[in-house]
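Molecular record:
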Amino acid sequence: MPVVLQEILKTIAVMGALAVALGLMLAVAAKYLEVKIDPRIEAVNKMLPGANCGACGCAGCADLAKALVTGKIDKISACRVSKPDARAKIKEYLDQTPGPDGNIAKVTI
């Protein structure tokens, strides 16, 4: 076997081993560094009107949903665009649905 071919095969083997090792490291990092997102945030965001007007003092509806779920804002009426029935629906959902930590968001209409 020519020397050049041996060097090429050796390089391919080293690069393949390196790719496998780095792939495994990425898989482990993805498992342990995963960001857990409270599913209630997305559910509340879908119940909000989606105007993203900022009148509530948040950057948009997604930010308001996060603030309601985490307790930074406790009044659903902060969303001036939402209708009363939507506010009641959000309150009912948050009163009945505990988060991943088992806590229930305390909100008022």
Notes: The chain has two domains: 1-34, 39-96.
